[in-house]
Amino acid sequence: MKRVSRKFAFIFMLILAMVILSACSSKNTGSEEGGTKDFGEKAKPIKIGVLASQTGGLESYGEQTLRGFELGLDYATDGTGEVAGRKIEFIVEDTETKPEVAVQKATKLLEEDEVDFLVGSSSSGDTLAVLPLAEEYERIMVVEPAAADTITGSEYNPYIFRTARNSSQDAVAGAAAIADKGVKIATLAPDYSFGRDGVAAFKEAALELGAEIVHEEYADPAATDFTSNIQKIIDSDPDYLFVVWAGANSPWNQIADMKVQDKGIKISTGAPDIAALATMEPLVGMEGFTVYYHNLPSNDINDWLVEEHKKRFDGDEPDLFTPGGMSAAIAIVEALKKTEGDADADTLIETMEGMSFDTPKGKMTFRPDDHQALQTLYAIKLEKKDGVPYPVPVLIRELSPEETAPPVRN
């Protein structure tokens, strides 16, 4: 009996030792509450999927955004490419400026590459097509540079944050430049969400200032001949033509050829990227606004951007959407610093709502109501400068984030 008791006692002690060792091992190497799972998550890289137009009508916008995004990651991580001990990887996919392709590429990024974030895209149409995927897969999407109001308006979902300005911010700035009591204004815009949202927002702001919208003209986004569109505008006899446009196929040359200004119609618009500025010689003296021009902001981050961009890209200055790409990268890194590398979407939403962060355009803040970044825009006048082969946006005054804050439309 004693031998049997000793045997059972030995077995009991052996089982107890195994349980204790197992518990210690679980505590040290992982349980559902911390250990291996947390260590594994920390060891994994942060993956960011960037959607951009690398082909199609907005190819130049895609290139600008991608350059800015890469520079932004370098700036925000002090060149380490890491945040909170996790490496950052980004994967670029070409949407071809086609919504159906954007959906395919976004799905690939989410399912095959298992990205933690989406960024993009160059086209509002592409972006609107992808928004539901961010919600379905519960991934944060930082929208840049798409501007349609509906992105943070009627199509808003809580996983969407936008560093790009929206059409209403453009509209407030554009209306402030020309709208007044009794002023008659016609508009010209591309016939898709960016153009129609832009005109709707401008019309709202202009009417509040007492102006009258006498004609709205929408052109095929891929058009190269604007003759009939411009003639309809001339026939409406406005005081001003306000143009909302994006893409290489701009209407400026035909506006000049058809002598719109000679007919007493003043032109106003947002100053575009450098390539399009080169076609705006007939508009020297025009007053309008711009999202960015490289010598308008005065801050250390913009100084770094201009200097570094010239170093890396054959002396070229950053263009219209370069700082937006940089701002998107900075926003992601700053959010991950605050969460100590936790890329859980619900944690990030709580962190990013109301979050302020410094950018080449000064301080931006994600408004909690709709996750739109409030930001500075610039009232400008186009002038000729010696040695510069295009009309240059010259600062009239900065338009503060509070001044350009758009209506909440979600």
TrEMBL record:
Keywords per UniProt: Signal
Residue span(s) of domain Leucine-binding protein: 45-384
The keyword Cytoplasm belongs to this UniProt entry's keyword annotation: no
Record PROSITE patterns: PROKAR_LIPOPROTEIN
Signal peptide (residue range): 1-23
Domain of life of the organism encoding this protein: Bacteria
Family: Belongs to the leucine-binding protein family.
Protein name stated in the entry: Amino acid/amide ABC transporter substrate-binding protein, HAAT family (TC 3.A.1.4.-)
Native source species: Cytobacillus oceanisediminis
